[in-house]
Design goal:
Helix content is 66%, strand content 0%. It has one helix spanning 2-48. The chain has 1 helix and no strands. It has a domain at 1-29. The chain is mostly helical.
Length: 71
């Protein structure tokens, strides 16, 4: 039983020693990922935002609404 605990402890220490440098190296890329996510968000907003607010009118839900400009 004691040998199993020692084996598990050694495995955990080995895993931490392998993963720690990888985690520290990833710290440099976190700001880059944040910038990419922000840019993606901005581009998505541009796609779903009307290009000119004067021609875009919200729908009222009525099927007979003819005030909306169609192109």
């Amino acid at each position: 039983m004691q040998k199993n605990r020692v084996r598990v402890a050694r495995s955990l220490v080995a895993a931490v020693l392998v993963c720690a440098p990888l985690a520290l190296a990833a710290c440099n890329t976190v700001s880059g990922v944040g910038k990419d996510i922000e840019e993606t968000s901005d581009n998505t907003k541009k796609v779903f935002t009307p290009k000119s607010s004067s021609s875009a009118q919200p729908k009222t839900g009525s099927s007979n609404d003819t005030t909306q400009v169609r192109k």
